[in-house]
Write the structure tokens for this entry.
Amino acid sequence: MVLDPPRAGAGRQVVEQIAALHPSQVVYVACDPVALARDVATFADLGYKLEALRAFDLFPHTHHMEAVARLTPAR
């Protein structure tokens, strides 16, 4: 599943709904590292682990970064 939420992040309710679908992986595209961290923590509470994380400087000469995280069920 690919998740590309607004800057505020997906939020607990959306993360819970996604986790209830039991996807084999979630690819999360984020423009705010704080929101990403909050949502990743929620995913972790629901049995997912962070497998990979990469940051991309798509907007040179600004402080904005994009991050792509891959989460999988912790087995």
